[in-house]
Amino acid sequence: MTDLDLSTPAPPRGSAKTLGDPVVVIEGVRKAFGGNQVLRDVSLTVHKSEVVVICGRSGSGKSTLLRCIDQLETIDGGTIHAAGHLMGFREKNGRRVPLRDAQIARQQRDLGMVFQNFNLFPHVSVIDNITMAPVRILKRDKAEAQKEARALLKRVGLPDKEHAYPRQLSGGQQQRVAIARALAMKPKVMLFDEPTSALDPEMISEVLDVMVGLSEQGMTMIVVTHEMGFARAAADRVVLMHDGRIVEEAPPEEFFRNPKSEHTKLFLSKILQH
Amino acid sequence: MNWSWTFFFDYMTNGLMLRGAWTTVWLSVISMILGLGLGIIAAMMKMYGNRAVRWIAEFYIWLFRGTPILIQLVIIYTGLPQLGIRLNVIESAILGLALNEGAYLAEIIRAGIMSVDKGQDDAARSVGMTWRERMYLVILPQATRTIIPPLGNQFNGMLKTTSLASVISMEELMRNAQMLAQIEFRVLEAYSVAAVWYLVLVTIWSAIQVRIEAHYEKPFGPAAAVSPEAKKDLDKAIEKAGVA
Fold this sequence. Notes:
The complex is a heterodimer. By secondary structure, chain A is α/β, with parallel strands linked by helices. In chain A, 34% of the residues lie in helices and 26% in strands. Chain A has a six-stranded mixed beta sheet with strand order 8-9-10-3-11-12, sandwiched between helices. Chain A has a four-stranded antiparallel beta sheet with strand order 2-1-4-5, with helices on one face. Chain A starts with 21 loop residues before the first strand and ends with a helix. The model of chain B has no long low-confidence stretch (mean pLDDT 91).
């Protein structure tokens, strides 16, 4: 069901682009759920304005990696630096001390996350979804936050939806509001966890369009997705995870034309045979 | 037949009964609010506390759900003075009713919190909310929707349970009906009037409850309130499913 043509063509992004400072640095990260080792020694660096697409079979650990970056899961080993923070810990006399809830929350404000199931707050309107965190947590001026929220809604193509409740929106519209909600915190990096997997096919492109637009404006993005069309058009690098490890990491043209790993070849053959 | 409508209607507006009805109302409201606070605290302790904290909450719930409210009231009012703790009638009635109510509400609130999708907590954390902020802004407002109907049911029960406070001489509707019955021995009329007053209070509450439920249902609304776009998408999906 995934096809290689992206509905909206974007200018090709070459690997020739000069790399900015690293925004996310993942080193030797391990994570297990009970006896199930989901991440085994994962390392990955993402630079400013880079778009990295992570793909792989379900259960390969790609969503868990994203959740670990945003501290929705705590890691068992390794380090994650993101947006200038050592995520989940602080250094004290050369030792790492786990952070408390409020300190983790402060770090999370610099990272934006978009979920497969949108997870909009159903009990408040669209504009309140977007302004809740800036107003109630950052104590920003409400009128100003609303002004910015309206600008964000315009940016994701939903200028007339501010008073709607989430249930009144289609899946694609809800996901675009979710993107606006994350952007309202002015994150230094955006994490997308299969943002189009729960959408009907005809709504996928409206979400991908917004994401392509974001990447063109220089947002640093890590995107877990099966949308290979998006990877081709917008990614600087494509990463394949298999069984908790990164087994291939290459610019899209190399990843699709000349994969080195057997896992990548198998993955591509399965995805492209439709 | 010795039923007197004259006494019945006279008692309906008797000062003793009116004061009793009013006492029943404020006793119920205060006990419910305090019980709600206790219930929220107990639910939080049981869900998020460490082992010792959880145990305390579970013991409280077990104790107050496992013994009759009548015994709880009598122990608080007539038993505790033996330990040097002296509470007056009003304090005893409120404390007993609130403690009892809190134990029941704790489980209702816990169920409400558990009914909120796990993804809501993820989303709240992803925008940088602390535990307190997640609870206050995201989880509890949504749990409220699930909690309100059983909560209304509990308050309905509370209005009538307050009658048990009559045994510790709390001058509410039941107690005042007893006193009225003693005056002219119009027992049937006096208690019938009390019963009618309870019906009136419960009926008024039902009307209020409907409004509160509607308020909390508004964001989730009926399917008919779906926006035209969402409806178009829905129609498309149905059409597609029909073809396939």
